[in-house]
UniProtKB/TrEMBL annotation:
UniProt keyword list: Lyase, Pyridoxal phosphate
Gene3D superfamilies: Aspartate Aminotransferase, domain 1, Type I PLP-dependent aspartate aminotransferase-like (Major domain)
Name of the featured protein: Cystathionine beta-lyase
EC number: 4.4.1.8
Source species of the chain: Chelativorans salis
Entry's Gene Ontology molecular function annotations: lyase activity
Family designation: Belongs to the trans-sulfuration enzymes family.
Catalytic activity field: L,L-cystathionine + H2O = L-homocysteine + pyruvate + NH4(+)
Keyword Membrane included in the entry's annotation: no
Amino acid sequence: MARDGHKSGINTRLAHMGNDPGDFFGFVNPPVVHASTVLFPDAATMASRKQKYTYGTRGTPTTDALAKAMDELEGSAGTIVVPSGLAAVCVPLLAFLSAGDHALIVDSVYHPTRRFADTMLKRLGVEVEYYDPLVGAEIARLIKPNTKVVFTESPGSNTFEMQDIPAIAKAAREGGAVVMMDNTWATPLFFRPLDHGVDISIHAATKYPAGHSDILLGTVSANEACFEKLYDTFLTLGTCAGPDDVYQVLRGLRTMGVRLARHQESALQIARWLEAQEGVAQVLHPALESHPGHAIWKRDFSGASGIFSFVLDGGGEREAHAFLDALDIFGLGYSWGGFESLAVHVFLGDRTVARDAYAGPVIRLQIGLEDVEDLKRDIEKGLRAALPG
Ligand SMILES: Cc1ncc(COP(=O)(O)O)c(C=O)c1O
């Protein structure tokens, strides 16, 4: 907010949010504080623990700068910064679930979230149930007296189903459950979960916030009602992130708006073009009018990032591998949100509810910052290689 009360645009805010250069002798960026020990001036201050910083695991000026920026972006009361996106999924689940509780998790969830739920959470005595991403307000029927968490991710990992987050959040809250959302795909620039009834917004900051395929980091942003418990669990587990990585993500945020605009535009151009290509049965991108969840995307989201999938028109693993092996610019790799394009043949064998019958193998594309015409040419080579015969 400028001094005259005017609310600046998102890129202006991204350029300045988080730290105040005045706190650090005018240097534009905050220091990268490497810290375990923090000294106290006297025994009384030490005993009271009232000093702003008390120990490295509990926060530093570097982590505070990123947490403050995320709070501004998400509209949250507090943010914890953890060593990976997966940690950002696991810490809030551990904070709000106990033995005997029931957790509802969307079936099109990021696979390692499912592995954590099916192993650790079950071992700790939590009842885990997966729900259809298209369930909407009908989720009320699945909520039981012991349902403590509803875990959403929209669009879904790999298959990009859009969930009706406001309807799910309303029903979940009425049932007394905490609503969590993995918001990595949209980033807070294109969707702000807390404005739609979600309590806790999760990010693999590894992706667009970091933006350069060289950092692992997670953030978890909570509303007033949930932050204390989340922060307490974070301290209990000691899952603090390293200062260099935190700094790099804050650095990445400065350019995230301009990068995302480019990712969005290039991905949409390629998605639209793909719809008309021979050998393509379907394109799974929520910003396309043909996507079954397009109306929800249009109602709730203000943009789309650069990752989506398409379905080959028939074939199996051989055709999927032929497509991937013919690519030169696209790398074969799992993460996304970086500057470079990537492709992967997605695994859907873990799904128990969202078992859509696709016409062929599902290929996920992360569209990077390269020139669109070069990327199209690369994809054309892949499609030719995957054609039967
Ligand atoms: C939707 C989603 N959430 C969380 C993660 C985990 O992030 P990280 O790789 O930082 O553990 C990923 C990684 O691919 C992801 O796609």
